[in-house]
Amino acid sequence: MDKYLKQHEEKIALALLAGVKGFDWQKLKEYHLTRIMFMQHERMIHLMVTLAFAIMLFMTLGIMFAYPRVEILLMLILLGALLVPYIFYYYSLENGVQRWYKLADEIDLKLRKKKS
Predict the structure, then answer these.
(1) What pLDDT, on the 0 to 100 scale, is given for residue 112?
(2) In a domain, 58, yes or no
(3) I want to staple 50 with a disulfide (CB 3.0 to 4.6 A). Which of 21, 62, 75, 86 is the partner?
(4) Does any domain span residue 30?
(5) CA dist 106 to 22, 95, 102, 113, Å?
(6) How many domains does the chain have?
(7) Rg from Cα positions in the chain
(8) Within 13 Å, how many C-alpha atoms sit on residue 53's CB side?
């Protein structure tokens, strides 16, 4: 996913830097906003998955305090090992989409300049 985020960012950044006269900024904006919508959906799904794993981790922690057993400890370790990569992935996804919002703002600036 990081590769996809960066490739799209580079494509949009190149278009912004090139600033070719007569470029269809509206079409670029529509394309970019469509990609943002896809990533917002991806971000929402991964937020739900991350929260589900966090809830399971804390429930298992509570069970571990009530009924200390090795099996429950192993489950706690497994959930923690799965939760950490999800958090890092969601963090990366969130930051990528935030960068895309800034690119959308830059496209808007180009559109306003074109209209004036």
Answers:
(1) 85
(2) yes
(3) 86
(4) no
(5) 17, 17, 6, 11
(6) 1
(7) 21
(8) 18
Distance CA 36, CA 93 (A): 11
In Å, what is the CA distance from 47 to each residue of 88, 94, 109?
11, 10, 31
Q: Is residue 62 part of a domain?
A: yes
* Tokens found for residue 6: 């960066």
Residue 7 belongs to a domain: no
Quote the DSSP letter at residue 20.
-
End-to-end CA distance of the chain: 37
Low-confidence ranges of the chain (pLDDT < 70): 116
Q: What's the pLDDT score for residue 65?
A: 94
The per-residue pLDDT for 116 is 65
Helix residue ranges per DSSP H, 19-69: 25-66
**Tokens (6 digits) for 52:** 């589900």
Placement of tokens 């057993």 in the chain: 69
